User: Fold this.
Amino acid sequence: MRILLALALVLMTAACATREPPRAPGADVWGELEAGLYGEIGELRTLRVAPPEGSSPDLEMESVLRQSLARRGYDTPDDAPLVLRYLLQTAVTDAADDGLGVMFSGALGSGSGVNDFGIGLDLPILGGGSSVRRVAFLFELRLEGPDGALLWRGRAVGRTHLSEAHRIARPLAPLLIERLGRDTPARRFSR
Assistant:
């Protein structure tokens, strides 16, 4: 029983320390994003868009990504050797204005991180339980070489009031794609 109480105390402390990043008035998504370069890319003008290995394509998500890539001058033929994989995970979390709530994420199984998972934790004793909810999200784009090696990864983590994947991706895709092929430090965003 003491172990469970200690675990509950740790989770409550983490939830209190986790504050929602500030957002601009009227913003649909807000949080933090970063990008990392992990391999030599070379000239990057063509690439194909695909879901994580073993997942079904999300046509609306792919349309959002292709539009954003086209605006930046990238071609997206189906036979391109480089692959831009997309992943969006969401979890309902607490809706208090200050955003008490926690989203845990991690990786299972593969070293490529394709099997990421997320869990939203709503803490009603800390102000949750209102009828309005937030959605915590993890949106990730991964550029892979012809051999499947990770060359670049862009990641956005944050909150939104939107629930459809393509509507969450629409403001985020341009932010990550403008960092495609570059290493950039974490920074806050609000769109």
